[in-house]
Write a structure and sequence with these properties.
By secondary structure, this protein is mainly α. The protein has helices at about 25-35, 45-70, 75-85, 90-100, 105-115, 135-160, 165-180, and strands at about 90, 120-125, 130-135. The protein has a 3-stranded antiparallel β-sheet with strand order 1-3-2. Helix 1 (about 25-35) crosses helix 2 (about 45-70) and helix 3 packs across helix 6 (about 135-160).
Length: about 190
């Protein structure tokens, strides 16, 4: 844990219409409490990592609430999401691959979603032995509704940044992710 280099005046954060001078968040208090305990703690690294964790938890809670609001279980949403990602139509085997599940598990999910009217299974037009799963209008509406809740919250949060700041944040996070993805022991994200 190294102490951060002094910040040059040109590197000072710029005032933004959504921020107030001297405004502190929960993480500032967290860092201040830990610095006397861990004098070598880099407050910038600790602050950034803690904020990323807190934002991740916040967005997960918003997503989970959206699932409750749309009467979806997480696995149901995941199935609708993967199906939507394939243009709204896929073979069950493709969904099983996308979801990293056994075909029998996908069949159970599809049975439940079909009973709710969110998907339908139809015979393939190219091979009558195969089945194609399609999102129904109700399935697409439900999936989009759940997605919109999270999307609105993401826009609200990142709305405090200018377009240039959003681009910079995205670029910086990409660099951090590339470092994480270089570690062969780290899990792979899909």
């Amino acid at each position: 844990m190294n102490q951060p280099d002094p910040v040059a005046p040109q590197d000072q954060p710029q005032e933004h219409p959504h921020g107030r001078p001297g405004e502190r968040d929960w993480t500032d208090g967290h860092v201040a409490r830990w610095q006397p305990v861990l004098p070598e703690l880099d407050p910038v690294v600790e602050g950034a990592v803690t904020r990323m964790k807190k934002l991740s938890v916040h967005l997960r809670r918003v997503r989970e609430q959206s699932l409750v609001d749309f009467d979806l279980e997480r696995h149901e949403f995941d199935t609708l999401h993967k199906l939507a990602g394939r243009g709204g139509s896929a073979a069950p085997s493709e969904l099983a691959q996308d979801l990293d599940l056994a075909p029998a598990s996908v069949t159970g999910r599809l049975d439940a979603l079909e009973k709710r009217g969110l998907v339908r299974r139809t015979p393939s037009t190219t091979d009558r032995r195969r089945v194609v799963v399609e999102l129904t209008d109700a399935g697409r509406t439900t999936w989009l509704g759940a997605m919109d809740v999270l999307g609105h919250e993401e826009e609200r949060l990142l709305g405090v940044l200018t377009p240039a700041e959003r681009t910079t944040l995205n670029d910086l996070l990409r660099r951090v992710m590339l470092a994480a993805e270089e570690d062969p022991a780290a899990p792979h994200w899909h």
